[in-house]
Amino acid sequence: MSERKISIGLVGLGNIGSTHAKILKEMSNVHIAGVCDVVQEKADSYAKDLNTQAYTNYKDLLEQSGLDAVIIAVPHYDHPTVAVEAFARGIHVMCEKPIAVHLNDAKRMIDAYEEAKKQHPNLEFAIMFQERTLPFYRKVKSVVDSGQLGKLTRATWINTAWFRSQAYYDSGDWRATWAGEGGGILTNQCPHTLDMYQWLFGVPASITGHAHIGKYHNIEVEDEVTAYFEHANGMIGHLMVTTAESPGTNRMEIIGEHGKLVLEEGKLVLYKNPMSMLKYSNETEQKFSKMEFEKIEIEVDINEPSGHQVVTTKFVERLLNGTGELIAHGVEGVGALTLANGIMLSSFQKQTVTVPIDADAFEAKLKELIAGSKFVKKASASLSQEDMSKSFGK
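The line above is the sequence of Gfo/Idh/MocA family oxidoreductase; the predicted structure tokens follow.
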């Protein structure tokens, strides 16, 4: 008896699309129903390699290939457009990050999903937040959720290990433009970081953002960002990101009343207090002395399966068997996008914004930037694919 297979189509055959193509090719329970790219030569080349049909119009792929599900790996603005059409046809969707460029488009996408579920109650919607599968982040999540740290007071994340050269930005005419990409580091590199923040701590109640436009690169979008978050429970958060630092830093500090958790350079360390620092502060008669603490390096199995393949495998298993959990449901993409849009809106308005943010105000500002852009850059003519594994978090 032959193994059951799910028929999947792939829309978008750029750098990240090539990663998906490799994964699908290796999955025995997947039939690749078709591939689509607006560049005919690219579509034909991938179709030949994957022994499938080439399309240059995504609607033709959705209507003619007989697919059950589609992976969306096109430029960001087109994520909602392709997803809405897929949902209308009862087709399952796995979308690359971010869910959309702005919250109003994300809402349109989610509304289409909810409407389609009335006719197709088993319809699935996943988003590619593969960093949730990384062993160190999974361990951080388990420690935070266990309550070992007690009441959280601060989370500070310096993540500047996103170095991108000018050659990277010149590699495509859509990159680092308001019209083509909708933003810079927050829209392209940091959706995973933003998702991880809200996955661990939730969406803050207010956001203060400082975004620098083209500070280190010849681009029209942000390449350095500092943000401050305030949560309803009193916790504060900091986020510092840039694509200009080399060597970069990826350091996460999480402070709770019972100690501190630090993730940096492949080590996860717990600094454990003998009692609550808040209780100690209120009860001690000492004016300057600090509590002794225990330093514990937490073991992490770095060989656990992780990455895009895990997310795709979970998605396929869910479709085939109706069991198991998605790594990230598509609707969860709103959390990271709220942070991204909120940081930029705060920076544009030069004031703190409350959550939920004014999505209409952000969309209006984005449209203004697109309409007023006079930025012209030379795009590389190369059609070669980069090794995207170099850009993935570890």
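Note on the example: The chain has a mean pLDDT of 94. The chain is about 35% helix and 20% strand.
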